[in-house]
Every structure is written in structure tokens, then in C-alpha cells.
């Protein structure tokens, strides 16, 4: 028997997930069997998958042909370094999420646990198949399976009407995206009828067709990733889904769309890049990032806040991809590698911290039955585990040192710093200035995250019942600690991780950063040269920790460590109930005021004459009113026109047939 | 890295710890003169710190561990910032740990922790201060980044030590871009350090406070650390501004003579800077909080102008 290749191991992982899913059907009502046996098993598969991918990185591509599907149309599969990076992400992130899920699912109103287990593992398997697909047919089958299984997962609590409509919106936009992707693949085959990716790589398309394929791919994958203006499903579907599913969708599934965009724009269309592709991706990305972060700051539902924050991160990824495309089209491969490394790194970082944060909201939701920020508060006291681990996620997602988000944002800004070298007369001025938008987005993300953490976990409990909230269970804690550990590792070991993912950059661009970084030592991140820019997270962490501990010891030694407890001071203000704190709406008031025109707001502000004063503000997405509702009205109007044809009487339909026949006879006369 | 460099590094940190309250005291003294008040002693901040360290910590009932932990984190962040910014010499072993962008990250980390601590007790003023601090933060950060970009483009580096080294030891050329960047940087510094016209360090009028509102619940050693960290931040920003826009006199290698010459120059520059800061604070009124975006928007435009001047006019310099 020949030794098992890594690609075989990946296929075994797919099969194992499918089997675990099917095993759930054996006893669909037995929650204990499903959550305490099958989900941990799925986590082990994820761990093994991550380890395999990690081990594979740096090797040459492997292919396999799987004779399933239509008779003459087998699945072509391929494992290369780009696939391996995303498989690593899928494996390690899903391991944490699955362990958490083992402790999360309860007996509920919605889908039976066995069915849920099947959908969940089918979703995982189809994501892995998306990454491995090497022809358009396999890709689309896997892509659609992913969309369908996640649709069923989103609508787990299908008894609620709003969850059903969120799922429906998701399905609709997923299919608009799928059509665009299919068309893009169709353009790339350029009529040869061979849908394998190998064939697409060899086609030399004219600039027009290449650009069409690129734009279609941007639309299609953008619909899955949540780029503006096809982002509207994301803030609806993420809150509707159970938290492990939200974590999986936000942390992993959005990345498969980024994977697809990278596969198309760097690999399949790699031979003839045009400079404006990068500009389009950057512009869309900047708009998306700014839009996402602004809307995330004004949300009062914790999962919607995170969903908009995911939109922001996807925007940053698109900016990075755009920058890499731009550098590559001007034959600056090292700088393109820098931008692309930032993208890959941010994919990994976002998978870690956003899954972590979504899972934390899951624990909060279980403990309090409450998603609205206005009814939470003070949870750091009853739920210390969740609170401190959420703080790790918050700092990572704010892009602050020494955790994971900072490394990728740092790399992205370093790439921006080289953009004045672009040989284009106005791009070399507009692009550096647009880095300010990235800085604004990062700082606003800090605002949103302080709001998220501060309102949920700090302050006084806004409701009486919150004091009895329970902390996360042991399974949940393991999952959270694992993901927080990933965020920390990505934060403090950037050079090691970049030397791993460098294989993917080299595959796509022909050059990487690792060779330049080798002589600097593993503790130092200096992508171009140490004189140019460097960052050493470990020293960073060590200095802060040392001065923290030393300061504490010295103060206690030289002075004392006495503490007295008393009521809060608050300038002597007497009424210090939980109602005196900032609400979620109050906290984001400065943003609503400064960026007033960017929101569609309906607010009611009480006057002194009101008998029953109340305050309300409703923030809506402009895109609904500018784009989607007109589109929906158009479709409805058109359907009404069509509906007029339906008289409901057989004589009328016979008349139609008769008229059509006459018409065809007139037209088709020889 | 040699042993001398390490000693120089530790000396720089110790100097920062010592000089920072002195700078605050000097600014307070100058401001009192400007306002025709009798001035507090120069050493007043030390007396205050000592008094605060001696006092018991009075902790509110609802305080979580985060509240007690945050002053130490903020203090640690400021020490790191002071370790990276070149004050006397550019030969700093810790300098490669963080470049200018990471320096912004250090200040960001401190800001997040102090804002979260402000929200921890759950009082009305605390969360008010926290959200205003974050507001000033996100308004200032784009302008600061554009300033960093301008200097980084001139020096082809984001490492603080390299930038200062390049700017200090070049032939005397006037960069118009640096002038714009310098003005933008001083606007940002005023906002980031909670000075007039964005905030008022002397205020105790509840509704106008930003920084003071956040630290209302702190007392004893925690308050001492927060106050010390605030003066370290002012010191770090002043030294960064001096190092970027008036770098003359900073020693490049590590030699006793160089350090001995650099110290009086630094103190003289800080004294002038502190005097000017007190002047600015005395002749300006505090802005309404919703005028702060205009103030920092001006800073951003100036910084962008600096960057464009650099890209348009100075590419061959």
C-alpha cells in the first residue's frame, strides 16, 4: 500500500466529518451522545487537519481525481500552499469552535441535535472541499453545499419569523454570488469547455474578458464575504444563527470567499494583471471597512455589532488584496508579497479573534438569555472566564499590540508606506493618503470594541437577573482558551508564522518575505530590513509585563497595599443606580452625531412637556433604501405585470397558445 | 547591543520617570504665572505623588479586578513608550522592539485600558469620560498616522531611532513638509494629552471633563500611577516632537560625553516647550466637545498637506 499523501489525509478528514455528521442521525434526539461524543470527535478531526496542513506547508502541489459526481466529470482536487494556509485556518479554528459547541447546544425548540450535527459537519466538510477543488464543477458543488448547509444552520431556530427571513436573505444573496462566480469561471475557460483550473491558468484572455472575469469574481466572492453593497445578509444572518455557527461563518466561511478571490485574481488570472483591478478592490475595501466599523459602533445588539465588525475586517482584507494586485501589476513582487502576507496573516488573526468573540457572546446569551446590550452589564463579576477571554479577543480585534490583529495591520501599513514608489502619476499620492482611512478604521474599531466589552462586562448590571448569570462550562472554556491562545500566538510569534505562510505567498507571487527575514532571528519582525521597520512583540510584552510587576512590587514594598471599600464617588452624585450609566445608544452618540449623514436615522427626543417622555433612535442601512428596496419594488412591479397574464380561466390560456402559434407561423415562414 | 547601550537605556527610563513630573510641575508653574496666580512649587507633582502613595486605596464596591489592574498596565505602556522615544541618545537597545506605528499602538493600548477602567464602576461620569476619550482617540489617530508617514517617507524608515538619527545628522535643509507635519503633530499632542483646547487638566467642572472624568473613582496608589502615567505621556509626546522636529543635540552613539552634553540641551528644550504649552493653554479657551472634530480635522488636513508637499515637491531631495 502506498504511503498516505497529505492530500489523502485531507480527504480522510472530509470523510471523517461526513461520517460524524451521519452518525448524528443514528440517535438524533440524544443530546448527550451527540454533544459529548460527536462534537469533540469533530474537533479532533479539525486539529488533525490543522496539523496536516501545517506539516504540508512548503511542499509542492499534489493533485487527486475523485471519481464521484457525473459519469464523465470527476472531481479534480489539488492541495497547494494557498489551500494549505486556509486548511490550517479551517482546522485550528473549527477545533476550538467544535469543542465549545460540545458544551453549547441545549435541548431547544428548533432543529433536533442529530440533524444539527449533520448540518454542522457537512458545513465543515464542504468548506474543506471548496479549498481543495481544482475544477469549476467541484468548486461549485462544494460552494453550494456550503451555502445550503450554512443556511440550515442559520435557521436552526426556525420557529421565529425573523430568523426565517434572515436565512432567506442569506440564501438569496449567496445565490446571486454563486451565479457571478459561475459566470466568472465560464469566462475564464474562454469557450474551451474544459472547466479545470489547470486549463484556466493557461488561457490568455483579452483584457476585456479578463477584467470581466475579475469583476464577476469580485462580485461573487464579495457577496459571500460581505463587501459593500452586497453585505446586507451578514448583519441579519449572524445574529440569527447559534453562536458556534456564527463563529464558524464569520471566522472561517468568510475566509473561503477571500480564498476564492485570491485564487482567481492571483492564480487563475495570474498571467495578465491590470493595474486598476487593484484600485477597484482597494476602493471597495476602504468603503466596506469604513462602513462596517461605523455601523458596528452604533449597534445595540452584541452579535450585530460583531457582524458589522466582520464586514470591517473583510474590507481591510480587500484593501490588502488590492494593494498586492497593484504592486504586482507594476512588477514590484516584494511589496506585493508584503501586502499579501498582511492579508493572509489577517485571515488567520481574524479567524481566531472573531470566533472567540462570537463564542463569548454565545456564553453571555446562554447565561442571560439577552442579546441586547441595553440589558447587560457587569458580567465580569459572575462570568470572569468569559470576560477575561473576551478581553483578549477585544484587544486582538482592535489591532493593538501585542496580540494578533496588530501584526497584520502593521504589515498592511508598512505596505502602504511603499505606495509612493508606484510609477503612476496620481496613484502614488492617493494611495498613501488612503492609509489614513485604515488608521481611522482601526481607531473606530477600538471605539466599537470598548463599547462591546464595556457595556457587556463592566459597570453595574442593568437588570436584576444578571447577578445570577453563570460562567461558561468546562467544554466552552476549553474552546475559548484555545482560540485566545491562537490570538496570543499569532501576536507574539509573527516571524515564525510568516515563515510558514510564506510558501503561499511564494506560490502566488514567486517571491516571499521569509528569505529577507531569516537573518533577523525569530523574535524580530522586520519584513524588509531592520533599519526600515521592525517590531519585536516579545520584548514589547516583556517590558510592559516587567514594569507592571516591578511597579506593583515596588509600590507595595516602599509604601503599602492597603485597600478600603466604599460606595462609588461619582462627584458626590447620589443616584447611582444602573440607569445612570451610559446605555449602548448613549455610548455611540458621538459617532452618530459626527457621521450623521452616513446613517439613516429616526430618532425621538423627549421634550420637557412630554407626559411620558421616551427616547428612541433607530439606525438603518442606507443601502436598503437606495438599492435593495427599489430593486425589490422593481421586481414586485414586474411580477405584477406578469401576473396580469394569468387570468385563471382556461380559455385565456388557450388564447395565448393560439396567438403564440400564429405568431410563430408568421415569423418562421420558410 | 552592548552593555553601555543597556545602561543608557535604563538611564533613559529612569530619567523619564524623574523628569516627567518635573515637566508637569513646570507647565503648571508657567501657567500660574501667565494667569497671574501665585505659582505652586516646581516639585509639587512629586509631593502629590508621595501623598497619594501614602494614602489608602478607596475602592468602589462594584470595582472588578480590571479596575485595579489597569493603572499598572497604563503605567507599563508609558514606560515602554519612554524607552523607545530617543531623548538623549539614539542608541537604544529597546528601540527595535517597536517602531512609530507600534508606538501609536502602545498609546492605543493604554487608552483602551483606561477607558475600560472608567466604565468599570458603572457611574455616569466614568462612561461619559470613556467614550469621549475614545472619540478623541479616533479623531487624532489618522492625523498622527499621516505625520508618521511624512517623516517615514523622508527617512525611508518607521523606526524612531533611525528617523531621529537621519533628521538630526543631515545637512541643514528645510523641509516644508516637516513644518506642516510639526503643526499637525502639536495639535494631536494637545488632544492626546488632554490639554486645552480639547480638554482641561485643571477642570473639575463635571460636564466638560474627559481625562478627569475617567479617573474620578481612582484613589491612593492607583491614582498616583495614573497621574504619573499621564505626565510620562506628556513627556513622551514632548520628546517625540522634539526628536522629530528639533532633533539637534541628541547623541547618536553611546558615550558619556555625548550624554552629558545632550542632557542640558534636552532640559532646555523641554523648558521652552513647557513654557509654550502653558502659553497656549492660557490664551485659548476649551472647545465644546463637538468642536473637537473640527480641531483635529484641521490637524489631519495639515498632515495630509505635509504628505502631499513631500510627495509633490520634495521627491528629489
If you had to describe this structure to a student in words, what would you say it looks like?
Chain A is mainly alpha-helical and 670 residues long. Chain A is built from 24 helices and five strands. Among the domains of chain A are: 588-620, no CATH class; 622-667. Chain A has helices spanning 6-26, 31-56, 81-104, 113-132, 136-154, 161-189, 197-202, 207-225, 234-240, 243-268, 275-297, 302-329, 333-368, 384-397, 404-417, 427-457, 474-492, 494-509, 514-517, 537-558, 584-587, 589-594, 622-644, 650-667; strands at 62-70, 73-79, 563-566, 600-604, 616-620. Chain B has one domain (3-313). Chain B has helices at residues 3-34, 44-54, 65-84, 100-120, 124-155, 160-168, 176-192, 211-214, 220-245, 256-283, 292-313, and one strand at residues 57-60. The longest helix of chain B has 32 residues, at 3-34. Chain B has 317 residues and is mainly alpha-helical. Classes of the chains: A mainly alpha (670), B mainly alpha (317). The interface between A and B is large, with 89 and 82 residues. Strand 3 (563-566) of chain A pairs parallel with strand 1 (57-60) of chain B, so a sheet runs across the interface.
